[in-house]
Amino acid sequence: MAFTVSIKAVPGSGRQCCILDKSGIIKCFLKNQPEDGKANKELIAFLAASLDVKKTQISIIQGELSRSKVIKVAAKFDIDEMKKRLGLERQLMLE
Questions:
Q1: Which of 30, 43, 91, 93 has the fewest Cβ atoms within 10 angstroms?
Q2: In a 3-state reduction of DSSP, which class is residue 11?
Q3: Which domain holds residue 20?
Q4: What is the pairing mode between strands 2-10 and 26-29?
């Protein structure tokens, strides 16, 4: 099973975390600058660790050179479980 999700990357922020912005888009803050694909590699590694999947199960299918990306996750869970694993469901409850 696989699904896609839109993500907005914020490279060079000095921290690693994901939040939901006001429009419901997942925003991922990354430490690395967008040089030589470092931020993209960090995004994939961060998501893989947070979601407890292999890095090879996550790929950027659109927006490799953009902050707005479409990520494909090949896993046995859905986007709701992804949000739960990223801690975003707690954020939804607080709003």
A1: 93
A2: coil
A3: 2-94
A4: parallel
DSSP characters for 44-87?
HHHHHHHHT--GGGEEEEE-TTSSEEEEEEESSS-HHHHHHHTT
- Tokens in use for 71? 């990520």
**Model pTM?**
0.91
Q: Is 12 left (phi over 0), alpha (psi -120 to 50) or beta?
A: left
Cβ-Cβ contacts under 8 Å for 84 (sequence gap 6 or more): none
Average pLDDT over residues 7-17: 95
Helix, strand or coil, per DSSP, at residue 88: helix
The CATH number linked to 87 is 3.30.1200.10
Nearest CA to 27 out of 40, 2, 10 is that of 10
3-state secondary structure of 5: strand
Report the C-alpha gap between 35 and 77 in whole angstroms: 32
Quote the number of domains for the chain. Answer: 1
